[in-house]
Structures are given as C-alpha cells and as structure tokens.
C-alpha cells in the first residue's frame, strides 16, 4: 500500500536556504535570520537549510543554481529563502566550517537528510535530490534484480509500476522521473536504479542512455507470471513521461481485419 507521506508533502513544502555575503538582485530568495527561520517550522512541511557564517566564503555557484530552481520548486508548492547566520548564533548548524558545506533537509523540526553542496551542482540536481529525499516511500531505489522482482511480485493483482534507469542521481533524466513521481506517486509504484547491470539483466538491447518501463502488474493474477513490460522509446523528459503514462492508461484496442469487407474493425 502506498505511503501517505506523499499526500503530506503535497500539502506544503518549504525550501529554505541559509547563507551570508550573497546579495540577490531579486526578491526570489527572501533573507531570514536563524531565529526567524526556526520559528516558521511547521509539522509536515519540509525545509532545505544551508548555513554560512558572516565572514565565510560565499558558495556563489550553488546559490546561483538555487535561484534558478526557485520557480520550478514554487510550481510544486516549495518556497525558497536564504538566511544569514550571524557570528554569535548558537545553533549547531552555524558551528563548524565543514558543516557549512552541507544543506540540511528537514520535515518540521526532524532532520531527514544532509546534502553535501557539491551534489547539488545545478538546478536539475537540486530539484531531483530534494524530491527524491521527500518521496522516499513513492520511489524505491534498487540495486539488484532480486530487488526488482520482489517489488514486482508485491504489486501483482494490485497496482502497476514505473521502473527507470538513470545514469546518475541529479541528472536531468532523474529530475524528470522525480517530477513524474510527484504527480503519479500515489497511483503507481516507482522504482529507480543507476545500476547498468540491472538494465542488462531485464533484456534491454540499448543501454547507453536512460530507460523507463511501465510494468503492467495490476491484471496479473498468477504469481508465477512476469508482469508485461512496455518500454518508453522517447527520451526521458517530464512531458514525454506524462504522455507515456497517459497512453498506458488508455483502453486496449483489439483490431480484426475482415477479408470480405477489406477493412479493420477495432473494439475496446
């Protein structure tokens, strides 16, 4: 059964950036103090927090990429801000210098994940990693064929699965899969891998690029049968995945060619 965490996430997510010595020319990154930020934490709402002390070097590349992610994140109900960590601030996140090279993901006041800023290297990586961490119940990361078969067997007669291979976490293709999971995560089980050997084991002829399969498991009643698989032939983009999933939802047509009438007739 799908987790209710996705529904909680959809209810509202806040993405907050903490830093100093970075002056934005736009109002897209409102500046907060640590006290202001922590006072806004609400149960069920997520926050990605980046701390820098006054006088420390600015992580300008990361901040520029985050600013590019503001609008896409807002489309998912995620707000973005920056917070200056003053010198006398007693918070543990304003302490050690090495800690200032991490972004901290919270839900309410609960720490979910620490991100080294070097893995949030561009707008795609920021969006992909944030959604991946928040949708951990909707998107299962797998590394072996046994993992895939286990999920497949658990879904037979119940639900369908969307399985994808991406070359690395944080790529544009990974972002596209996560954005699809944001929309369809309560309707389908998503599974993701970066292991090319797993892709080879399921019989993919071409393995030099990202793949996405739709596993038709809902109608499989015999547990000894494999779920039928349909490969998405288009590149992995958010729009292409959306069209592909809609196509998989369309009723199947059975077409018969009539020799006497010399034409096809199709029925649902």
TrEMBL record:
Keyword Translocase (UniProt): no
InterPro entries recorded: TXNDC16 (IPR040090), TXNDC16_2nd (IPR057642), TXNDC16_N (IPR057639)
Keyword vocabulary terms for this entry: Signal
A Pfam family this chain is assigned to: TXNDC16_N
Signal peptide range: 1-26
Domain TXNDC16 N-terminal: 28-131
The protein, known as: Thioredoxin domain-containing protein 16
């Amino acid at each position: 059964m799908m987790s209710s965490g996705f529904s909680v996430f959809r209810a509202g997510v806040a993405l907050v950036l903490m830093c100093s010595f970075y002056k934005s020319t736009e109002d897209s990154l409102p500046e907060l103090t640590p006290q202001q930020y922590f006072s806004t934490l609400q149960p069920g709402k997520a926050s990605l927090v980046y701390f820098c002390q006054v006088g420390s070097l600015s992580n300008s590349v990361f901040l520029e990429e985050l600013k590019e992610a503001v609008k896409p994140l807002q489309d998912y109900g995620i707000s973005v801000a920056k917070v200056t960590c003053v010198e006398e601030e007693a918070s543990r996140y304003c302490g050690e210098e090495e800690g200032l090279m991490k972004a901290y993901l919270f839900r309410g006041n609960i720490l979910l994940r620490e991100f080294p800023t070097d893995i949030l290297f561009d707008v795609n990586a920021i969006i992909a990693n944030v959604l991946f961490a928040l949708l951990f119940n909707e998107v299962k990361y797998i590394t072996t064929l046994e993992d895939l078969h286990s999920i497949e067997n658990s879904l037979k007669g119940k639900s369908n699965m969307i399985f994808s291979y991406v070359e690395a976490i944080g790529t544009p293709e990974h972002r596209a899969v996560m954005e699809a999971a944001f929309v369809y995560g309560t309707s389908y089980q998503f599974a993701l891998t970066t292991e090319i050997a797993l892709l080879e084991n399921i019989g993919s002829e071409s393995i030099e690029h990202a793949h996405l399969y739709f596993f038709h498991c809902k109608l499989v009643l015999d547990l000894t049968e494999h779920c039928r698989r349909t490969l998405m032939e288009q590149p992995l983009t958010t729009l292409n995945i959306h069209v592909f999933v809609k196509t998989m939802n369309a009723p199947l047509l059975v077409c018969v060619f009539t020799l006497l009438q010399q034409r096809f007739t199709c029925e649902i």
